[in-house]
Task: inverse folding
């Protein structure tokens, strides 16, 4: 479930309360108050998001010493070993190949 931004509550509340006031402020009084509630809820959500914002979001993630940096070649090999159809490499250029490939999409040599 996605979270609704406080700005959306502000806009919807403003539209509901202003349009209800302009239509008929005596008969639409409940909608005016519902609009005020949405505006207050939106303001509270925006304010709380600024106050309780995590400082970790601004800082880049640090790697723990146990995590090693994976090179580009290792990433290609991990994709090649992927269970979603990769069976190996092209004999000519070492491009990862899928089961359905007849020709290498990089160098054009016949695989099967």
Result:
């Amino acid at each position: 479930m996605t979270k609704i931004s406080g700005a959306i509550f502000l806009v919807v509340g403003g539209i509901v309360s202003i349009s209800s006031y302009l239509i008929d402020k005596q008969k639409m009084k409940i909608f005016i108050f519902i609009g005020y509630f949405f505006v207050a809820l939106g303001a509270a959500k925006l304010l709380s998001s600024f106050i309780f914002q995590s400082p970790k979001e601004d800082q880049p993630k640090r790697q723990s010493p146990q995590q090693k940096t994976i090179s580009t070649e290792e990433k290609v090999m991990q994709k090649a070993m992927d269970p979603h159809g990769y069976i190996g490499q092209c004999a000519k250029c070492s491009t990862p190949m899928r089961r359905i490939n007849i020709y290498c999409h990089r160098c054009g040599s016949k695989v099967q």
